[in-house]
Structures are given as C-alpha cells and as structure tokens.
Amino acid sequence: MRFDILTIFPNIFDSYLKESIIKRAIENKLIEIHVHDIRDYTKNKHKRVDDVPFGGGAGMVMTPQPLDDAIQHVKKLNKGPVIFLTPQGQTFSQTKAEKLAAKSEDMILLCGRYEGIDQRIRDLHVDLEISIGNYVLTGGELPAMVLTDAISRLIPGVLGKEESHQEDSFSKALNRKKEYPHYTRPATFKGMDVPEVLLSGHHKKIETWRKNKLK
Ligand code: ADE
C-alpha cells in the first residue's frame, strides 16, 4: 500500500517514519510512504505558497498553482483517492481505518496549513475530506500521520504476532467497545494486586472477566 503525502513541512515526518512498527513495515515493503514538498512546485521567485484571502479577513490561504502542480505530479505515481485533512471533513474512526485498510488502496494525503487551501483545489482534486477530531491543529501533518499509522497497522503482516489488532479497542471482536485493563509482572506492585482471576489460568473465567470490563 502506497501513501503519498503532500506538505510544505516534509521534515515533520522524518522521525516518525524511522521508528518502530512503521519503520519495519517500510523495510518489509508492506507499505511505501513518499513525502513531497509542495514548495518544490512553486513557479514564483520567492517560492511562496500562500496569499491573502479574497474578501479580506485574518490568516493566509494556500495558493492553487503549487498545489495543482504537486497533485498532478503525484497523481501519475499514485492512482488512489486524494484525501484532504481538514477539521471540516468526516470524522476519522477505527471503522473508517478498517475500510481503507481492507480496500488496500493507495492514497494521496494532502496537508493544509494556515487558514486553509484555495477552494478550487478542493473542487478540482479532492475525493474525500477527513478530520481527526473536533479541534483545530496548526496543519494537516499530524492528521496525515494518524491516518497512515491507523491504516498501516491493520495491513496483514505489519503487526507481529505479539501485537495483534484483533482485540483492539473499537474492533469488531470487542463489539466496538473500549478494551479491558491489562496487567503484567509483578503480581503485586506498590501493594496493588493483579485481579485473582488473571492468575488462575482458567481461560473461560478470564474471558468472562475481560468481557465484563469492556466499556
Ligand atoms: N487540520 C487542522 N486540524 C485538523 C483536524 N482536526 N483534522 C484534520 N485536519 C486538520
């Protein structure tokens, strides 16, 4: 599965992609993540990517030319939908992550900055708009990472046996509920004991206990 991310801050992604599960998934060729700098597509001398809004008001708007050129270029490399990360989009969820992972479709993730992007780019190129929650971030980069992470870990082989997603919070297996509490050694910590049933080795009872602890 291939993700192409369009941003004016490509370095934001460096550390995240070089650690842990995502790093391993890239090395194992289960996913490909390509980050593109929108500024490389500017045709003006100062490499400006923003301008004042028509009609006035606070904040700047990302200009259409570099976005249009960047998207046209990336569309030749990636035939998936163009997803724009914006607080105005549909709210992301585990169910949405599952649907996108099941399709195993490549995708282009467009990160906005400032007040937003010129509406004509949305009209021309954007297939789907996604928000990661009802709050406003400084840009779409964190949301793009959230989508990439949540979808990637559902791709078969990305998580090891030890890290299964079958019983994640919000998974079908848990009736879309929040997961039960986890305990590991030692059995007593700062005077607090692990629930007896978890030490019993009685699988049926453990299953029932866990089911009752779902929220
Ligand atoms: N850009 C800024 N805030 C956002 C949010 N909550 N979700 C997606 N993109 C955003």
**CATH class descriptor of the largest domain:** Alpha Beta
Structural class: alpha/beta
The name of the CATH topology of the largest domain is: Alpha/beta knot
The hetero molecules present are: adenine
The major pleated sheet works out as: 5 strands, parallel
Outline type:
elongated
- Count of all domains: 2
Radius of gyration: 21 Å
Order of helices and strands: EHHEEEHEHEEHEHEEHH
**CATH-wise, what's the superfamily of the largest domain?**
SPOUT methyltransferase, trefoil knot domain
Question: What value does the average pLDDT take?
Answer: 96
How much of the sequence lies in strands comes to: 15-25%
Can you walk me through this structure?
Helix content is 33%, strand content 19%. The protein is an alpha/beta fold and 215 residues long. The protein has 2 domains: 2-152, 3-Layer(aba) Sandwich (Alpha/beta knot); 164-212, Orthogonal Bundle (Trp Operon Repressor, Chain A), CATH 1.10.1270. The strands form 3 sheets. The chain has a 5-stranded parallel β-sheet with strand order 2-1-6-5-8, sandwiched between helices. Strands 3-4-7 form a 3-stranded mixed β-sheet. A two-stranded antiparallel ribbon has the order 9-10. It is elongated, with a radius of gyration of 21 Å.
